[in-house]
């Protein structure tokens, strides 16, 4: 079995500015530092690759300087691109402003990653042992959402499909979102995105509703809560609040991507879901102590981190069977 991640997402070039605080309207700030880095879906791919998965990219890169930059970054991480580059467009970019409290604000401009067709995706296939991932960003683009949804629905039933709706979930037409959720094996989202899909309520209620109403074929759902960790509910009704790790964050950009990539990588190795969630919490905790969105740690770094910290879960970390 290959344990390969087939990532059908959107990689962009991030232009990262570090500032003490966001400028007021009509004013100007001078950044304390600037960096050009690969971003978007690249962050999740790096997290999976550095923790042991073979990763291939089934989205589209551009043919200009941004595309060239991303191809070099992919090659450096051993990530193969399955589709030919666009002959018409360059890859898109995202301006990321990281403030002194480690929060981030984004402005993006889509490029070649926003266009996918079934013909373009012809070289992309999933084999036994593969895991497939996509995000809400790719489904938010009008020129890619229909083809990608058709492709996802045509996946063989035994291929696990992982979906992250991302903060642009409101830009995904509800019929498209419903079709993708219906094929989802693992849903990973934050608390805001979970409520956008399933309505308001406490995390237990929302997670149950996600599985029962929106993701009927899913093995489980992970609701991420930043530094607090995550809440995991499985299809059999087992639930666990998996506490996060206390660290000093300097850059939260890419933490969610790191969490998902590490979680999928752990699951692909046969690690049980609640243990995989703790592993992912550790990966995300390490990543926020480093600059850059693609700051995911290696498996060795995660194992070393876990060997030096106490289990933060306590009583909440014990597996329970949720009430029907």
From TrEMBL:
SUPFAM superfamilies: Ribokinase-like (SSF53613). The lineage of its organism: Bacteria, Pseudomonadati, Pseudomonadota, Alphaproteobacteria, Hyphomicrobiales. This is Ribokinase. Pfam families: PfkB. One of its GO terms (molecular function) is kinase activity. It comes from the Bacteria. GO terms for cellular component: cytosol. Keywords: Kinase, Transferase. Residues 4-295 form the Carbohydrate kinase PfkB domain. The keyword Kinase applies.
């Amino acid at each position: 079995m290959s344990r390969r991640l087939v990532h059908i997402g959107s990689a962009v070039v991030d232009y990262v500015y570090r500032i003490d605080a966001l400028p007021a309207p009509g004013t100007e700030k001078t950044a304390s530092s600037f960096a050009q880095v690969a971003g978007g879906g690249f962050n999740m791919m790096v997290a999976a690759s550095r923790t042991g998965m073979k990763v291939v990219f089934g989205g589209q890169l551009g043919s200009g300087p941004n595309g060239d930059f991303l191809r070099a970054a992919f090659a450096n991480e051993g990530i193969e691109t399955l589709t030919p580059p666009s002959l018409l467009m360059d890859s898109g970019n995202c301006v990321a402003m990281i403030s002194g409290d480690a929060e981030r604000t984004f402005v993006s401009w889509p490029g070649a990653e926003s266009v996918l067709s079934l013909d373009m995706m012809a070289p992309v296939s999933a084999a036994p042992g593969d895991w497939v991932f996509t995000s809400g960003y790719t489904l938010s683009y009008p020129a890619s959402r229909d083809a990608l949804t058709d492709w996802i629905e045509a996946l063989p039933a035994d291929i696990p499909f992982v979906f992250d709706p991302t903060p642009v979930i409101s830009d995904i037409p509800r019929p498209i979102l419903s079709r993708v959720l219906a094929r989802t094996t693992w849903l990973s989202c934050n608390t805001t995105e979970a409520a956008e899909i399933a309505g308001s309520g406490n995390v237990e209620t929302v997670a149950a509703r996600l599985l029962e109403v929106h993701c009927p074929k899913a093995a489980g759902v992970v609701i991420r809560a930043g530094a607090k960790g995550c809440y995991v509910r499985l299809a059999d009704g087992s639930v666990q609040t998996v506490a996060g790790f206390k660290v000093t964050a300097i850059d939260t950009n890419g933490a969610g991507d790191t969490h998902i990539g590490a979680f999928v990588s752990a699951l692909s190795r046969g690690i049980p879901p609640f243990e995989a969630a703790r592993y992912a919490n550790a990966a995300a905790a390490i990543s926020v102590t480093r600059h850059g969105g693609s700051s995911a740690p290696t498996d060795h770094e995660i194992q070393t981190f876990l060997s030096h910290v106490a289990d933060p879960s306590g009583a909440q970390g014990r597996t329970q069977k949720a009430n029907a």
